[in-house]
Amino acid sequence: MPGAAERPLSPHLQIYRPMLTMMMSIVHRVTGVALYFGTALLALWLVAGATSPEAFDLVNGIYGSWIGLIVMIGYSWALLHHAIGGIRHFVWDTGAGFGPEWRELLARLTIGGSISLTVLLWIVIWLVKG
Amino acid sequence: MSSSSGSSMRTPRRRVAGLGSARSGTGHFWLQRVTGISNLLLILICVPLVISVAGEGHGALVELLRNPFAAVALSLALFSIAMHMRIGMQVVIEDYVHSEGMKVLALIANSFFTIAVGGVGVFAVLKISFGG
Ligand code: HEM
After folding, report:
1. Range B22-129: architecture per CATH
2. Which residues contact B13 (CB under 8 A, 6 or more apart)?
């Protein structure tokens, strides 16, 4: 930043012991950016569907390959994590949930909820679509 | 102004204090919240729809999108997500890209990408829905 004072304006990030709440804040941003590019995959799938049955089969084949499925599982976890993290932000926006115990609990709920819901989602997908 | 900046002991915040607001301070914050809520609602509707046709043949997708409810939900979801992505990524760019030229380029690229992804996605949904 031009003209920024040459002295620390806030505590150095490097001297902080990594904390769960801090990780969740970073992960909310990382999942947001991942979803940003993931939306292009959804648009591509729809464009293939609007182009021809052959194009749609091609994209479906790529997304359904083992590497494609890993991306899909990652995408679904990112979406669930970011969505739960977003709800956590809405709680904070009301002014609630800033106390130490609450912050810690919300962080645990976000990571625990996103992982278990992702597992549940793929079990359901596997049961329904086999 | 510029003469006082380089070695100044004053913080950037102090230098702008009292100059008045830029008048758009809370706009993006609020829109991020509103589109977050609409994303949440629309994703809850659309994810099951998309999963129901994922990996099935082309006919399943066409049949789904012939249903106006599904086509509208998916179009609105793409629109809402594109808006949310655009202002969300703008914050990320402003946080990490500090050179003025690169920042402007990145912000333009962000607008192009998000509007293209949203627009192309909505067009594809409508094309299938209207039977083309
Ligand atoms: C595919 C869908 C989505 C995409 C592509 C997306 C993308 C993004 C991006 C890029 C950011 C900026 C990250 C940052 O500044 O750290 C963001 C922030 C945010 N997102 Fe999403 N998001 C999606 C879905 C959702 C949903 C479903 C919710 C609500 C439940 C939500 C709530 C939020 C909130 C509240 C913020 C602001 C966080 C803050 O102020 O630090 N997002 N999103």
Report:
1. Up-down Bundle (1.20)
2. none
- Least Cα distance to A90 among B95, B43, B92, B34 occurs for B34
Task: Kindly report the pTM of this predicted structure.
Answer: 0.87
CATH code of A57's domain:
1.20.1300.10
CB contact (8 A) between residue B36 and residue A129:
no
User: Domains in chain A: how many in total?
Assistant: 1
Contact state of A39 with B58 under an 8 Å Cβ cutoff? no
Best residue among A35, A77, A82 to mutate for probing ligand 1, ranked by most atoms within 8 Å of CB: A82
User: Given pLDDT bands bounded at 50, 70 and 90, which one contains residue A4?
Assistant: low
A15 occurs within a structural domain: no
B88 in A contact zone (CB under 8 Å): yes
Domain that holds residue A75: 20-129
Residue A6 near chain B (CB below 8 Å): yes
Calculate ∠ Cα A55-A61-A66, nearest 5°.
155
Query: Alpha helix (H) ranges present in B7-99?
Result: 12-16, 27-53, 58-66, 68-96
Q: pLDDT digits over A48-95, tens only? A: 999 999 999 999 999 999 999 999 999 999 999 999 999 999 999 999
A113 confidence band (pLDDT: 50, 70, 90): very high
Ligand 1 pocket check for A47: Cβ under 6 Å:
no
Residue-averaged pLDDT of chain B: 91
As for the ipTM of the complex, it is 0.87
Are the beta carbons of B86 and B107 closer than 8 angstroms?
Answer: no
Separation between Cα atoms, residue B68 and residue A45, nearest integer Å:
19
